[in-house]
Amino acid sequence: MTPTTEALLASRVHATLSAAQGDYVRCIDDDRLEEWPRFFTEKCHYRITTADNYRRGLPAGIVWADSRDMLVDRVSALREANIYERHSYRHLLGAPAVVSVAPSGEPDEPVEVQSETSFLVVRITGDGPMDLFACGRYIDRYLVEDDRALLRERVVVCDSSRIDTLLAVPL
Amino acid sequence: MPYWVFQDEEVLRTELGRLFRGPHWSYLCLEAELAEPGDFCTTYIGNQPVLVTRDVDGQLYAFENRCAHRGALIAMAEHGHAKDFTCVYHAWTYNLQGDLTAVAFQDGINGTGGMPPDFCMARHGPRKLRIATVDGLVFGSLSNEVPPLEEYLGEEILARIDRLLGGRTPVVLGRFTQELPNNWKLYVENVKDSYHASILHLFFTTFGINRLSQRGGIIVSKDGGHHVSYSAIDRSADDGAYREQKIRSQSDYRLSDPSLLDGFSEVGDDVTLQILSVFPGFVLQQIQNSVAVRQILPVAVDRTRLNWTYLGFADDTDGKRLARLKQSNLVGPAGYVSMEDGCIGGFVQRGIAGAGDEFATVQMGGSDAASSSSRVTEAAVRGFWKVYRASMGFTLESA
After folding, report:
1. B239 in contact with A at a CB cutoff of 8 Å?
2. Which residue in B has a C-alpha nearest to residue A42's C-alpha?
3. Residue B101 pLDDT > 80
């Protein structure tokens, strides 16, 4: 049986998203935060919130950005200004669920893909405690073009409303 | 300050009784969260669960969130809408004012079982709280001896709450909880410590953000328990001071997207920062256009729950609302200027292990607990300890 064009597109989109997600968490977990904003389009939305705020439609975030430059500033602040104990993350991701694929409205016809991916983050403080720091889901809008995916929007919805101590490194 | 006050289980038990359940007012919630009759929210005084409701008469009520029968929580949701509350354990039912209205199988079945005939529902119910509001902030107290809220706060503190919230309708923009790895009093000290602000929090100086010359100061309430730290743009500052301040900026870093700080005059004056605390565990904050309330709840001697509620106002334009959302990056668990406060208490808690009989020094700015035009002072910290000592029944000698 020959796969339909639609099925081919779906599997291609899925593979592209999986690769992008893998690169994203590896970038953070490897402490290459300077590269992190490059996963986003120039005009974008990134927000870390909680399931309770999300359900109630409350717009504020623990981190809230509407441009790639705001993400660049996040990283420079972490590197140059903010004081916190050295720590790192280990992200574990679920398989991305593709919610919709639609024309993006951009001239050279990339597609916009909405997806949802569950995550679990262990925080390692110094060389010491490993704590289950966060779990939740990425609710994403990706711009996918030529097997390359950039985030137009990532809403990080943490399942719990509680953040232990502080949140410095992005999720 | 002897360090054992941050370590001792018995001290925490006494604090919960004498401070949180004692003759003091604790912040419960916002009136805005209980807009409609039947709205309720669950909150805490110290570690004690409390239920706050708006009844059909439009009035606010608060009572322990504890069934009078066997002690189970009456309501579990953090917020919701109800006609009445039924305990899930044995279906005892309470109205929105906390009165027991029904007991399941009160008369037994077929003449057997049931409550004794002299059982009187009016004599069984969760304890009710005294409740008072100021500018939409709801406070409660379990004590009958507590003075009226206005008197408790005093004119200066009331005026500063009114400056920020008076005549405005707050809108909740988000709620976040931060779990702090330290004693609750270490966070309170941090809030009242205007001395640390420019030293620990380097965000503004690192990015060379010119805040113009600032004038400001601190207000410490008469008894010492409450405080306000504020700063405002000084319009009399000349260009010389402006340039000098710019030269002193120690780095070349600049924000790539400076729209983070596109703000507006919050209430039409020049005040850009106002941190206000009410004894024992409430904070009202304006940092630029980031307005929030913080509720400080002790969980264990080395564990504190900090509940943030970010606010906007009903008459915000789209532009103002956007500015608030952007500036929310300054505060909270990931805040550019508040992130450090989440870990510094833990550094102290860990630092003082084994040093319970040693002392902290709080001499910056002298030894009194008075208002001053300088923010390089620990006066408000001393004020807190003054009220704390008296309320706890400690004497200087016992330290």
Report:
1. no
2. B257
3. yes
